[in-house]
Amino acid sequence: MTDTHAHLDACADPPAELVARARAAGVDRIVAVGSGLDSCRATLAITHQEQGVWAALGIHPHQAGEADADGLDELRELLADERAVAVGETGLDFYRDYAPRDRQRVLFTRQLELAAELGKPVVVHTRAADEETAAALERFNGTVVLHCFSSPDLLSIALERDYYVSFAGNVTYPKAEELREAARRVPADRLLVETDSPYLSPQPRRGRPNEPANVVHTAGALAEARGEDPAELAARLDANAAAAFSLP
Known about the structure:
Layout: E1 2-6, H1 15-24, E2 29-35, H2 37-49, E3 53-58, H3 72-79, E4 84-93, H4 101-118, E5 122-127, H5 130-138, E6 144-146, H6 155-160, E7 164-167, H7 177-185, E8 191-193, H8 215-226, H9 230-245
Helix pairs in contact: 8-9
């Protein structure tokens, strides 16, 4: 199985321990996510130290007001690394509003342009910005992964445009029936699963830091919600991750 989104550099435990526990749980591939230039450098270093780990590198919308937002040339250089498989996470967050919205829009557009230039998929974070996110992505012709999907109003557009829709641990929460309903509507070949480690631990591990090994709980919850065989869905999710990120 593949955890398609984990912030390994933000976890308290060393990456080697996290990867070993993931492998013991049947998770043999991880897409580690760098958010900001320092994080991207650290994440790339992890990918070269740990087998089965690849990198998605980007500048988060929360950082749009910081100096890193002007570092797209360095980001381009980092993305040239053979272990870098995607741009992101990038996007728009009008819920927290940690950065000015105009700066978020500019940064998102520039990273979409970078992804198009490099021919890499884009990993998208969106909160309380469905319409603007959809409008920005309309001009992007590459592969789109909607990370930690929590925007049911965006689902119809995502399905129409064949985006990948990735679910994290919050889909397992008792009150998240709206997310489970969304998961039932996603075509089998467009569904992804992630942890967003160290955040959003699935229900069986809630209250503790999340880690890639826990993606099996979220995959199991998706299988239950969709009425599918867990082993068959796990294989499908793994194949989808390989297709979305061009993983070996």
